[in-house]
Amino acid sequence: MNMNENNQDLLTIAGKTYNSRLLVGSGKYRDLAQTREATDAAQAEIITVAIRRVNIGQDRNAPNLLDVLPPDQYTILPNTAGCYNAKDAVYTLQMARELLGGRNLVKLEVLGDEKTLFPHMPETLVAAEALVKDGFDVMVYCSDDPIQARLLEDIGCVAVMPLASLIGSGMGILNPWNLQLIIEQAKVPVLVDAGVGTASDAAIAMELGCDGVLMNSAIAGARDPVRMAGAMRLAVRAGREAFLAGRMPKRFAAVPSSPVAGKVA
Fold first, then answer.
1. Most C-beta atoms within 10 A of its C-beta, which of 43, 122, 144, 221?
2. Which residues form the Thiazole synthase ThiG domain (predicted)?
């Protein structure tokens, strides 16, 4: 049985619950068959799709991702990867809503430049406000700035997704302190997005108190993507369990692990 199903520790986004706290991307795989294999190994329920790069019906003559990841089995999360201004991002997600039959859950990302792929926060805020007013449920890629995260939440975004490090870098969580500040203040789910490189990075994100982790390159770029997907599933689950259990306090002195009371002299 899935551990989350057993203890009912479910992830809720925009009023819908999910057993898995691992969200995965759908790009960079060898082919669509491997995409499906890795998704299954991850036991992911939310799959993000770059509308500008992946076919979900825009091109009837090309392979369609929805043939291997059908929307009646998965929550398809269209994203705006490749958009550098609010106008393009809003248009891209409006097109995605039409292709997906009116579904409103989307991932917004507006990039600042091609070198860093860092979020352009002024344009992100503009796009988020327009999308929320248009009835979208917006999950939003953002900087690890607690003030910006709060502004996005105040606009009405259903989840904030601060980067751990640069997209595709695999550098892991470079600023856990900022991430914790965002987690402590947030009233919506906080999911790490970008920078995860291996299973320990995912576990650390969850141990800090993140509600979930989204990744693509860390799985698709592994030597064995399907096996790595399974490792990430276990890491996210273990990190969540550790967070719920509560770690022991850190001390600046050794403490015997065995009882000393009543010991034989």
1. 144
2. 12-259
- Is 168 annotated as contributing to ligand binding? yes
Element (H, E) at 75: strand 75-79
Would you call 107 a catalytic residue per the annotation? Answer: yes
Closest CA to 3 of 241, 169, 255: 241
Per the CB < 8 A criterion, the answer to whether 173 and 205 are in contact is yes
- Token representation of residue 177: 């302190």
Q: Are 246 and 55 within 8 A, CB to CB?
A: no
Q: Is 262 annotated as a binding residue?
A: no
Cα 6 to chain centroid distance, Å, stands at 23
165 appears as a binding residue in the annotation:
no
Q: Which of 16, 28, 87, 107 is catalytic?
A: 107
Q: How many CB atoms lie within 10 A of CB 102?
A: 8
Tokens read off for 62: 């090309």
User: Tens digit of pLDDT per residue, the chain (265 long)?
Assistant: 344 445 589 999 999 999 999 999 998 999 999 999 999 999 999 999 998 888 887 778 788 888 899 998 999 999 999 999 999 999 999 999 998 989 999 999 999 999 999 999 999 999 999 999 999 999 999 999 999 999 999 999 999 999 998 888 888 999 999 999 999 999 999 999 998 999 999 999 999 999 999 999 999 999 999 999 999 999 999 999 999 999 888 888 887 776 666 566 5
Q: At what angle do helices 225-245 and 32-42 cross, to 10 degrees?
A: 20
Contact 146, 160 (CB under 8 A): no
> Exposure of 135 by Cβ count < 10 A (0-12 exposed, 13-18 middle, 19+ buried)?
exposed
